[in-house]
Write a sequence for this structure.
């Protein structure tokens, strides 16, 4: 469905005054959302530090003969996800400037890039399973750590894709205005958070 | 299919530069903005640029162990 063909009220901007109640609840919601991201960060951190501890405890772990990760595919997949962070940033900036069509196009681009990332991760999982017989339960502690962390991150990306799709539909329906758009801000924060987590996972699994 | 990793690396390197420049420019434009929300955005854009740089260097073979 072409975004430009959608029937929508666009970004409402009728000299609307931002009331004090909205400003106060917006700050509270922002704080709440940041706390949610911190709690999610703690969840990822515990798994990441467990992985690093185990890796540094064993000699040469994960050792020769273990599954070989595809750095070329991972690099491309990472750039796809980081690119989606940039497109999401553009989407929010266009909303702030009242450009609805550009906003919607950048948001759709973000959703597509998120789906591409998930496809790339799926290809990597299938390759690891068919070539190296690596799986969550069948390839020792490395496999368990790798599949748990990347799988948990993939789940967050999947949730983010659904979240962004809902935001797109809500914005088409005119739920947000040029002055009141906290949902879009939260969506952008969440998507950047998912990007930042992948910077860490990409570094520890493929680079270090 | 033998050339696939090579093609993946080239595409990743090219778009790595694009994403890095985009994130760096966005960070520069937002640099003077104030408030908690913008502070978080700036931090995340910085890490996004770092990630794009790492992806680029991994694609050209400077870093990476796989």
């Amino acid at each position: 469905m072409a975004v430009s063909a959608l029937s929508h009220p666009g970004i409402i901007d009728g000299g609307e005054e931002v009331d004090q109640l909205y400003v106060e609840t917006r700050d509270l919601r922002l704080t709440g959302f940041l706390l949610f991201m911190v709690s999610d960060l703690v969840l990822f951190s515990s798994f990441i530090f467990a992985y690093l501890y185990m890796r540094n405890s064993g000699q040469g772990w994960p050792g020769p003969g273990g599954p070989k990760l595809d750095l070329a595919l991972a690099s491309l997949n990472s750039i796809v996800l980081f690119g989606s962070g940039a497109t999401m940033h553009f989407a929010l900036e266009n909303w702030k400037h009242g450009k609805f069509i550009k906003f919607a196009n950048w948001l759709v681009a973000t959703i597509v890039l998120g789906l591409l990332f998930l496809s790339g991760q799926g290809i990597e999982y299938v390759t690891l399973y068919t070539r190296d017989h690596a799986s969550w339960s069948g390839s020792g502690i490395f496999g368990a750590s790798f599949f748990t962390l990347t799988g948990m991150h993939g789940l967050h990306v999947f949730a983010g894709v659904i979240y962004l799709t809902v935001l797109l539909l809500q914005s088409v329906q005119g739920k947000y205005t040029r002055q009141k758009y906290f949902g879009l801000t939260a969506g952008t924060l969440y998507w950047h958070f998912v990007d930042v987590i992948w910077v860490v996972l990409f570094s520890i699994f493929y680079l270090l | 299919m033998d050339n696939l990793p090579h093609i993946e690396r080239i595409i990743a390197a090219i778009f790595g530069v694009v994403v890095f420049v985009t994130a760096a420019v966005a960070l520069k434009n937002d640099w003077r903005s104030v408030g908690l929300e913008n502070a978080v955005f700036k931090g995340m854009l910085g890490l996004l640029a770092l990630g794009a740089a790492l992806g680029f260097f991994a694609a050209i073979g400077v870093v990476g162990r796989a």
Remarks:
- The interface with chain A takes residues 4-6, 8-9, 11-12, 15-16, 18-19, 22-23, 26, 36-37, 40-41, 44-45, 47-48, 50-52, 54-56, 58-59, 63-66 of chain B (CB under 8 Å).
- The helical segments of chain B are 4-30, 36-59.
- DSSP finds two helices and no strands in chain B.
- The two ends of chain B are 19 Å apart (CA to CA).
